[in-house]
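Q: Got a minute? One more chain.
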Amino acid sequence: MGSTSARLLALLGLLQSRPDWPGAELAARLGVTDRTVRNDVARLRELGYPVDAVRGPGGRYRLGAGARLPPLLLDDAEAVAVAVGLRAATGTAGFEEAGQSALTKLEQVLPDRLRRQVSALRTASTSGPANTGPYTEEPEVDPEELTALAAAIRDHQGLRCFYRGQPLELEPHHLVAWQQRWFLVARDPASGTWAPYRVDWLRLRTPGGRRFTPVDFPGDLTTFVVQEVARTGWAFHARVVVEATAQEVLGRINPAVGTVQPLPDGRCVLVTGGDSAQVVAVWIGLLGLDFHVTEPPELVEQFRVLAARYARAAPAG
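A: Always. Here it is, folded:
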């Protein structure tokens, strides 16, 4: 391989690409001798990169955890993918500033050819709004709180928290992102029940809870979150009697948006929710089926408003 500096960068990139490397394989990849690999590892250490070595025939090497972040060596596709992902993050509530800062730093160090690719992709494409609900603000999540939750999950550390103002103690299990929201799947140690908790409704207390022995979750995490949120996890909930069979309604909805309960007379009850009465009213109207709503009062009023608005929009005659 060419210059020493180019070889050092190539060696650093290999060490970052996987946890452990035999010295002989590194030498073969770089086209040098085992002795040159040892010398280059010593140079990386002098530059502040902690490379751990295991002595023996040929030796083995791995990049250890250091006090500073080494430069990430990405190939072309990886660099463009990271830039696109960071641009998407700038539209996520709570991550706008950090995402934009990281994207700016990345674009500054991209080679010119990759910077042009990222720029072309940015100018030639547009993302639609992540939240299409009317007049609904995106919930903002504190990145530090997500980090604290992830650490508690990793360390099997119990949580003491307030959830919508109510004190709780939980055993955190997993974080799930769905529809621009973060949910913590956790177990109540007192009752043994599982539930998804919206992270933007949760406030951690210090000190935290006690360490716990994790219990396997009984099922698929994503399916559980989607179904439970449809049943209990919205800010606004409603029960709507639909003039159709349960099977017909199920054929028109995504299971994520509600549950359907059959009635003895052939009709059914749709249990659903959303971030506001307006969102629920608009969505139910899209079913294309007759229905009746008697509660909650906010939803009844919202239908009256929509009915009057649509009546004014229709031509007379």
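A: The first helix runs from residue 4 to 17.
Q: Perfect, thanks.
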